[in-house]
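User: Here's a chain of 374 residues. Predict its fold as tokens.
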Amino acid sequence: MSSPAFYDIRAAVTREQSAPFVIEDARIRAPKNDEVLVKVLATGMCHTDMIVRDQYYPVPLPAVLGHEGAGIVEAVGPQVKDLKVGDHVVLTYGYCSHCHQCSDGHAAYCDEFYPRNFQGSGTDGKTALQDAKGEPLHDHFFAQSSFASYALSLESNAVKVPTDAPLELLGPLGCGIQTGAGAVINSLKVAPGSSFASFGAGAVGLSAVLAARVAGATTIIAVDVVPSRLELALELGATHVINSLEEDPVARIKEITNGGTKFALESTGRPQVLRQGIDSLGLLGAIGVVGAPKLGTDSSFDVNDLLLGGKTIRGIVEGDSNPKQFIPMLVELFQQGRFPFDKLVKFYDFEQINEAAADSEKGITLKPIVRIAK
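Assistant: Prediction complete.
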């Protein structure tokens, strides 16, 4: 029996700037070439979904967002080599696999990163999704658009995971958790016995705290303004926490570390917080920047402090990870009890997707996961 040309699905559609997600009937075409069709079990919700919904980044609308999908392979294109129907996969960002950066193992800086993740269509300029009236829906968001019951991705950004791992939990490893953990392990290369400060204790910042503990940092500092997040940071491995509404984080970090932290990560997207992070570094310290503000946002630093202190400011995308290697590693660390990112999440039904977004923006929930399949 031949596969259908289209599959009937349900999708959460963003039709206008800052408008609520609307769950609609839709259709998705069958996979071609090296594509895989994935039945989405659950999808994490990330800050980037909201800033695209609000058009901080100019993804064309109407669109189906979602970029932390986890599910089961339903069908494969004729050029798929390694994945097969029934495989459990986590969907991650798209990359070309053949540019200089991809060939050097830095797919997060792919020459085609923006069009493959934010263009709103495939590389051929066409969409795979249609609404109930047959009108195209912009898709291929992060090469997946997983706020839907089915998603298309390339084999390259569908990462096989063990069937004994809790699949509905794993979607955030494709972006947010990968970003925080990868920034620590891959980009900053936080060393055993070193000091690390996370500016922001949301899902990305606390993933970094977890990773700093795995990496062997012995002084791990979390900075935030929400007491419950700071309490959780201590549970997850932070040795110190700082409420920046109550004390100066720069002075306190220099006191804790006897001069300044060796490593830091800024995940809030606030320029003034980035400045605090830079100022808190010790000699030869390095800070990674993963927080995403509006396009065109400026920040500042003291040039001589940077120069004379030998400091490094490093922009980081997707934790500079090779997802095919890094995501399975995080799954294994989770299964060993060494990376308990499940303590960051709260599950929502598909019909509660707008509640999940609101709770995330209010700071009520660190990492929402929306269950798509019943």
